[in-house]
Amino acid sequence: MNVAADMRDMKSRPTVPEAPSMENKSCRARIGGLAYSLRVAVAGNPNCGKTTIFNHLTGAHQHVGNYSGVTVEKKEGILRHEGREIIFLDLPGAYSLSSSSQEERIACDTLLAGNEQAVLYVADSGLLDRSLLLAVQIREMGRPMVLACNMIDELREQGHDIDFDRLSALLNVTALATVGVSGQGVGELLPALERTASAEVPPPLMVSYGPALDPSLAEMTDLVEKQHPQILRYYGDVSPRWMALMLLEGNETAWDAVHASGEAAEKAAWSVSAKAECLAKAQGETIEDIIAVQRFAFTRSVVRDCLCGAGEKKGRMSLSDRLDKALAHSFFGAAAMVAVLYAMFNLVIFVGAYPQEWLENAFAWLGGALRDALPEGFFTSLVTDGIIDGLGGVLSFVPLIIILFVLIAVLEDSGYMARMAYIADRLFHAFGLHGTSVMPYIIAGGIAGGCAIPGVMATRTMTSPLERLATMLTLPYMTCGAKLPVVLLLAGTFFPENAANVLFLVVVASWLMAFAMALLLRLTVLRGPSTPMVMEMPPYRWPSLRTILIHGWERTWMYLRKAVVVLLPVSILLWASMTFPSLPAETTLDFENRKGQLILKAEDKSAPQERRDALQKQIADLDNAREAAALRHSLAGRIAVWLETFTEPVGFNWRTDVALIGGIAAKEAIVATLGTAYSLGSDVEGDDAPLSALLKSDPTWSPAVALSLLVFVLLYSPCFVTLVVIRQESGSWKWVAFSIVFNTALAYAAAFAAYRCALSGGLS
Amino acid sequence: MQNQSALALTTLKQGEQAMITQVRSHGALGRRIRSMGLLPGMTVTMMGKAPMGDPLALRVANTTVALRKREAAEILIVK
User: In this structure, which of A218, A229, A340, B66 has its CB flanked by the most CB atoms within 10 Å?
Assistant: First the structure.
């Protein structure tokens, strides 16, 4: 233990929570006068089925947000039970209250604040000794508890059972059996919670830490309780002995509280802690080891006392171990992972394509209907081209996102996600990332066709902050589905013999670029030690359908809310910049006159059919030419023309520039805008042939330009929705600005290099 | 609890079992490792290695824990 380091640390982190009003000494009274409502904190290890129980209790009445200042999900659910309102707060999964990770810190701080009248602790019955480690700590703190021994069916299948009366008595809790997946026993938790909350607060649990630590612990307890009771003033009814234990353990939160209690308290605590450390050292041990070993010995003795039954059958690990022989194998495991990812990707893209198409068609139909119904003019254009197209762009991704999140939830709940992180860790770690980065990368388009939006959102499953940011900022380089049309158009036009190879190279290049940039970020702006991997690989289990659906829904809803709020104004802005200023009256009049004359000629029934068809085509051409002229005249067009000087070194003309501007709204817009700028009308999707032919015949285009544009599109600024999601997930506009500026600068530099190399290589 | 024949956990071969004698990691990481059941006196089994030999999969306290070699090297064992 390093008290000195802890003391240095805490000066930079004044995280002591707000002091509650002093007259409310009891945590029971501190609920703003709402005596009828009951607040319950739900705690437990990761993978113990905590979320399943939480979902069973609260159903869809959940509120998902973030804990202030961090990106850890905060979930609250409300339940009405016999006229009372019960609020459940789902704490992040944790293994201890030693605050070694963000999640554990939050769990610890929430429990310390004591705003909940009872703790519902969910334990994995098959792993009772380790599961109880955290429960014991919460009871040592002094919180009243209902202990749900979850997955009791697995334990009973093995021929064991738990003596619940004995367990309840040993820990001074109400212990009950539950099966989260089926909901068995969940209903009995509510009356137990109400009884626990209305009864007298039980005395805190006393665990002996042996002759090496108990004297020091007693001394520190005395210091906290009698000499400097102000240390405890921030926390609702925390056991002084628990606070003393945290101080001896070197817990940062506890030392913060001591630091805030004045110099005398700090000095005294420091001296007791230093003495304890010396005592432990004299026995060749550390305080951390003593605490951990003794506490584990305690939970094991509790389990020995309470576990009954012969246990003839094999443990649940045996099937899991057999699966792991293949799925976590050092060679076949990697192959299996690629296969799983590939299957998943196909499922998302192919199954998701249908509802996506329906939604797109529905919006196109709506736009068309409104265009017909409303008088021609800017208002109609705003509604159809601005709002409907913008909304359609956001909403058409929803099916993909739902499917994706459902699949991610399956992978998470089945236990396979941990195996993927395990298998990929060596590779990702080499570039300053983490094994858990593999999923977001793949979703974002690691296998061509993904989407950066759910990719950024999938970084939620990562718990290491620096690696998470590095992943989030580099995954937009992946070949997402919206970049594919550009790749296919350019490859088909300029490298027709090697189109497939070009696509493959693009995917490889995107991975290399993402890895290289992740490494660069981790060595510069995101410099810091890599988060160690200490990860449980839970046994494989069938995921619960209910949990998966709730999971998928709430994440989708979050995406929708944010995306619509931000994207709508942005798409209107983009529409305006591509519409205004409109063509001057005389130009418009000229177009109208010419069109009128053509229409008159075309309506002449005496002319031969071919002549009339030719005239119709001339009318369409004229309309397209007018659209192109309007685009060039608009603000976006003018910016693009102005940009031409800067993009000339990478080989782009103003038409390409305006398409790239459109691509910031959504990469799907690139090919469509290019079509408009080349006077083909924006409806070039599905039929690239005219655009392809035009590009080929345009003297400003060449294979070198195509290569340069490919590189640029791959790397430049993420689309708006991705930026919105980056803001949401990173919690800062700083990283949004970084993504726009850095990625575009990088894209320019890389495109320049590619262009020059191609030119000198004779690709002109 | 220093033991002359103590070896690093990384020396364990697949399927081999040993007893932990010392965990040398401290601070947050040390507490994290300990909270997973990697403690002096516990029996640990090497379940396997990920592609390219890192991280390791360990069986301890009836669970499987993945740990990178760098962290595993700080855990001492006797066979």
Answer: B66
